[in-house]
Amino acid sequence: MYGNLHQATKEDIEPGVVSRPGRSILSAVVSIWVILIAGAFTTLLAYHNLPGERSDHALVWPANDSIKLDTQRPNLLVFIHPQCPCSVATLNELTRIQSACGTLLNTHIVFYSPIGLQWEDTSKVRQALEIPHVKITNDIDGQLANMFGALTSGHSLLYSRDGRRVFSGGITPARGHEGENLGRNSIVQYVLNGEVSCEKTNVFGCPIIDSPNELAINSRGSEHVAE
Amino acid sequence: MSLSEDRPINDRACELLDEHRDSIYRRTDHMFAWLMFFQWLAGIGIALWVSPYSWAGRTQHVHPHIWSALVIGGLICSLPILLANYYPGRAITRQTIAVGQALASALLIHLMGGRVEAHFHVFGSLAFLAFYRDWKVLVTASLVVAVDHVARGLLWPESLYGISISGWQRSLEHVGWVVFEDVFLIYSTWISCREMTVIANRRAEMEKMQAEVEREVTERTREIELQRLVLQESHERLEQQTNELRKAIEASEGANRAKSAFLANMSHEIRTPLTAILGFADVLLETGDIYKAPVERIEAIQTIRRNGSHLISLINDLLDFSKIEAGKFQVENLPCSLHRLIADIRQLMQVRAEEKKLNIQVEYSGPIPEMILTDPTRLRQILMNLLSNAIKFTHEGSVSLKVSLVGKAPNRRIQIDVTDTGIGISEEMRDKLFQPFTQADGSMSRRFGGTGLGLTISKRFAGLLGGDLTILDTSHAGTTFRLVIDPGPLHNVTFQEPDAAMSAPDEEKSKPTDTKNALRDLKILLVEDGPDNQRLISFLLKKAGAEVDMAENGELGYLKANAATASGRPFDVILMDMQMPIMDGYAASTKLRSDGYNGPIIALTAHAMAEDRNRCIEAGCTDYTTKPVDRAKLIELIRFHAEAAAV
C-alpha cells in the first residue's frame, strides 16, 4: 500500500527555494562560519593550554620566617591568587591529593595578600579552609611566591623531608580544568610510594604578581620600587 | 492543493508527507533558534558568574571566558538562528543547526573542564535533534561530536576528558555511546517517518473520499435543489389553486350569503303581504253574517286562504332548505311528550285523512319514554310531512304510525314507521327521493302539489335530531318510511306502556280564543311600516278592545314610547316590527332598553328562524311572534305580557 510512496524531500521544487547562486553563497557562509568557530576554538584551547610564567630557581627549600620545613613529612606548597577563578580547579585537585595523602603530607596553601586590599575572605580562601590537614598562609605582597619562584596561581611545589624540591608545576590538566593529571599523580605517588614519575608540569592560572621584576625583597618585607 | 478525484492518490500522499515534514522542520528550526539563543545567554551568564575577571596581582581584566562565551557562543548560534529565521525548513538550516548544537556541546564540555556530566549535553542535543525526524541531521551532529572527540582527545585531552593523558580508545568509547544513542534515535525516527507516511496515505485517502462525498453531496444537493424547485413550483401551483379555491369558496359563500339574504328578504317581503292576505281573508270569513254570503264568495275567500297557506308552507320549506344547505340550521333540545306530540299530529291530520275516507292508526310497540329531549318543532315538521305525503298518495286503505323504542342503552333510539297503502314509489325514484326538488315525475306536482322539498328537509332534520329517515319498503301495495331519532338521555325517565299511551286523552281541539274584549283597557303601540299590516293588526287589536297608537318606523316608535312614559301613561305593550326604514326594530328596542324602558316589547318579524328569535331577544325584546300573525296567538301573547308587567 505504501510501497509506492516516494519519501524524498522535494526541496528542489519548493516555492521560495534558494537559487543555485544563493546556495553557493550559503555554503560559503557555512564554511566560513565553521572556519571561524574552529579558529575561535583553537584560540580558546590555546589559551587554556597556555602555561603561566614560572621560575624554577628554588631547587631547595628557601630559608624564610613564614613557613618551616617539616622534616618528618614531604612538604607541599600551593600558591594561590585569591581572586583567580581558575584556582578553584587547583583547590579541588588539592582536596583529592589530601584525600589520598592525609597527614602524610605537610600542606601549605599560600594566598597572595597585597597590602591595602582585604582579600582574606574570598571564595577561594573559604574553599581552602574546608580542605583537611592544610595550613593557610597569607603571602604579603607575594614575597613567598617570589622567593619560591611561584609566579602563577596554582603553582604547587613538593619538597622532600630534607628540603629538596621533588616536584614543581600545576596540579590541573589545563586552565581551570580538573581531572586526572600528571601533577596530582606525581605528588600522590611520591607521598605514598616515594617515587617521582614527573618532576615538572605546566601551571595554568592567573599571574600572582603584577610584575615580579618590580618587587624588591628586603628584611622588612616588600615594597614597590618607583620607576 | 487538495486531492481531486482523478488525481493519483500517491502523488497527493507524497505532497501531504512533504507538507507535514516541512511543518516539522520549520517548527523544530524555530525551537532550536530559541534554544541556541538561550544557550548563548546562559553561557554568558555562567561565565559572568563563575569567572568575570582574570587577575595579575592587583590588576583585573575581563576574563577570557567572557569573551569565549560572547564570541564563540555567539558565532555558534548566529548562523543557525539566522538560517532558522530566513530559511526555515531548509536542509542546510537544520544541518547547520546540527553542527551548531554539536559545537555548543563541545564548548560546554570544554568550559566545564571536561567533566563527564557535561557530556550529557551531547546526548540531550541528539535527542532534541531527533525532533526533526531526519536521520541525516543526527548523523551530521554525531560526526561533529566524533571529530571533536577524536581530535581533541588526541590533541587536548584535558579539555575533553579532564585528563592530560591522551587516548583514542576513550574517544572511541565516547563516540560509541553516541552511536549507541543514534541507533535508537534513528530507529525511532524511521518508525515516526513510517507513521507519518501512513498518516499521509490515510489523509490522502480521506481527502479522496471527502472529494467523492463532496461530489456526491453536490449531486444530491443539485437533485434536492431540483426537487425543491419542483416542490416550490408545486407549492406555488397549489397555493395558486388554494387561492383560486379560496376565492371560489369566498365567491360561493358570498353567493350563498347573497342567496340567504335574498331568501330571507324575499321571505320577509312575501310574508308581509301574505299577512295581510290571510288576515283579511280571516276577517272576511269572520266578519258579519258570512253564512248569508253566496257560496261562491265563501269558496273564493277559502281559496285565497288555502293558497296563501300553501305559499307560506312553500316559503317555510325554502327557508329551511336554504338554512340547512348553508349549514346554519340549529336544532333546539327541549323536553317534550312524544305521546302528546303524536296525538296532536294525528288529530291535526285526521281532518285531511277523513276527507279521503282514510284512517290514521297509531300503534305503540312496547313501552316508550314519557318525555324525550328533542326539537319538537322539527319532529312535528317531519311527521307532518310524512303523514301529509302518506295521505296525499293513498286513495284507499289506511295510514298507520308504529312507534317503538329500539336499541340498547346508551344508544337507544325512537323509531317511527309511517306506513300507507298508497301507490308506492318506483325503483328509479327511490334513490332520488331525498334529493331536493324531486318528485316522482313532472306530473306529480300538478296532480298532487308540493314543493319537492319536504322529504329532503325531513331527512336532513332527522340527521340533525341524531337519527335518519329512510324508505323501509315500497311496492304497489304501499310504502313504509322509517324515522329514527335520538331521544336524549333516558335515565330517570318514566316509561309508558302501550295501553296507557293509547288511552292518553287527545288534546282538546283548540277552540278559537275568545278574543272579544281580551285586550280591553290596554294601551298598545304598534310600530309597523307596512300600511296593510298597520290596518290589519290595528283592526285585530281594536276588535279585541285595545287602544292602539301607531308609528311608521323605529325612531317614531322610540319617541312615542318615551313621550307616553314621560306623560305618565306609558304603553302596556309595544308591538315592534323588526324590519323598518330609518330605524329598525332591533335598534329601537336596544335604544329603549338603554334608556331604562322596562315595558314589554313584542317583536313582529317575518324572519321565522330560531336565530332570528334569539336576535330579537338580544336586542331587548320581551317576546317574539312571526308574520303572518296568528290572531289568537298574538292576542294571547299581548294579554300574557301585559298581565305579567302589571304584576
Please give the number of β-strands of chain B.
16
Helix and strand succession of chain A?
HEHEHEHEEHEE
CATH homologous superfamily of the domain at 75-223 in chain A? Glutaredoxin
Helix content of chain A: 25-40%
Number of helices of chain B: 19
What is the average of the pLDDT values of chain A? 81
Please compute the radius of gyration of chain A using only Cα atoms. Answer: 26 Å
CATH class of the domain at 75-223 in chain A: Alpha Beta
Largest sheet descriptor of chain B: 5 strands, mixed
Placed side by side, the strands forming the largest sheet of chain A appear as 3-2-1-4-5
Average pLDDT number of chain B:
83
Query: Uncertain regions of chain A: pLDDT < 50 for 5+ in a row?
Result: 1-16, 213-227
Distance between the termini of chain A: 89 Å
Shape of chain A: elongated
Transmembrane segments (chain A): 25-47
InterPro entries (chain A): Thioredoxin-like_sf (IPR036249)
Keywords (chain A): Membrane, Transmembrane, Transmembrane helix
Protein name (chain A): RedB protein
What do these coordinates show?
Chain B: It is found in: Membrane. The complex is a heterodimer of chains A (227) and B (647). Chain A is 31% helix and 17% strand. Chain A has five helices and seven strands. The model of chain A is unreliable at 1-16 and 213-227 (pLDDT under 50). In chain B, strand 12, helix 15 and strand 13 (547-551) form a beta-alpha-beta unit. In chain B, strands 4-7-8-10-9 form a five-stranded mixed β-sheet. In chain B, strands 13-12-14-15-16 form a five-stranded parallel β-sheet, sandwiched between helices. Chain B is an alpha/beta fold and 647 residues long. Chain B has three domains: 11-207, no CATH class; 334-496, Heat Shock Protein 90 (2-Layer Sandwich), CATH 3.30.565.10; 523-646, Response regulator (Rossmann fold), CATH 3.40.50.2300. The model of chain B is unreliable at 504-513 (pLDDT under 50). Chain B has 19 helices and 16 strands.
